[in-house]
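Would you mind writing out a protein's amino acid sequence and the numbers that encode its backbone to help me picture the idea?
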Amino acid sequence: MPQMAEQSKHTIPITTSPFWACVRITRPWNVLMVGISMMLIRMAWIKPGSYKLLELDFLIPMIIMMLLAASGNVINDYFDVAEDLVNKPRRALVGRVVSRRTALLVHHFMVGAAMSMALAISINWRTPTPFVWSAVVAGLLWLYSPMFKRRFLRGNVIVSLIVGQLPLWCTLGAFNFSAWHEILHEPAGKGLVTYALLSLVITFLREVTKDLQDIVGDADSGYDTIPVRWGRERSVRFLKISHLCAWPMLISAGILASLQFNLGTESLIFLIPFLGATVQLFRKRIDSVSAWQKLTLGGGLAFLLFLV
C-alpha cells in the first residue's frame, strides 16, 4: 500500500487549476528567455549602443517569435498526451487538467495573433519575408510531433533550426533586406551567424539528450528518435563524441569573440556550463545533462550582457 501511495503521488498533476495549466503548457520561462535573448542580440549586435527596445520595428517581431514559441509548446503537449503520461506524469496537463480542445484553441489563438502581426509588418515594410518566415516556423512547429519526430533525426534538426534562426530574425526591421549580404560579411554579422550556429548545435545536443530521457514513452508512441533506434548505450556514446567534437568549435568562437570585442575571459563564460554537461555525461548522469546544456544557452546570454 505505501508503494502504491508513493506511485500515485508521482502521477498527480503539478497543478489542478485549468488557468495555471494553460499558462504552464506555454512554458512561460522558456518564452521569456526567447524575448530576453532577442533583446540582448538587438543591443549587442544589431544596434549596439541603442536601448530603444520599444520601437515597433523590433517589438512586434519579438512578440511574434514569443507567441510562436509558446504555441509550439502547447501543440507539442497536445500531440504528446500519451507519452507525457509515461515520461513526465506530473507535468502531463493536457487531457487531464486542461482539455485537448482548450489547448488547441489556445494554440490557434496565439498562432493567429502572431500571423496577423507578421502580415501587418509585411504590408508595412512592403516585403513578404516576415509573413512567409513566420508561416514556415508555425508550420514546422505544428508538424513537429505528428510528423518530424516520427522520422529519424528530422525532429531534432527542425527544433535546432527554429532556435538557430532567432538571431537572424532579430535583423528584421533593422536593415534594408537588400543589405543583408553585406551585413553578414562584416565582423558583427559573422559574429551573429556564429552565435546562431552555436545555438543550433547546443540545441541539437540537448534535444537528443531529452529524447534519451524520454526513450520509454517515445518508443511506445512510435517515435523514431536517435535513442529509440540506436538504444541507450549507443546514444550515450554518440552524445559523448558530439560533445567532445563541439569543444574546439566553442573554444574557437570564444577566442574570436574575445579578440573582436576586446574582452577577457568573460567571453568564455558559456564554456563553464558546457563543461558541466560534458562531465555529467561521462559520469552517466543523463538526467542532469539537459539542465547543464540549457545553462550553456543561458551562458550565451550572459556573454551578450558583456557586449551591451
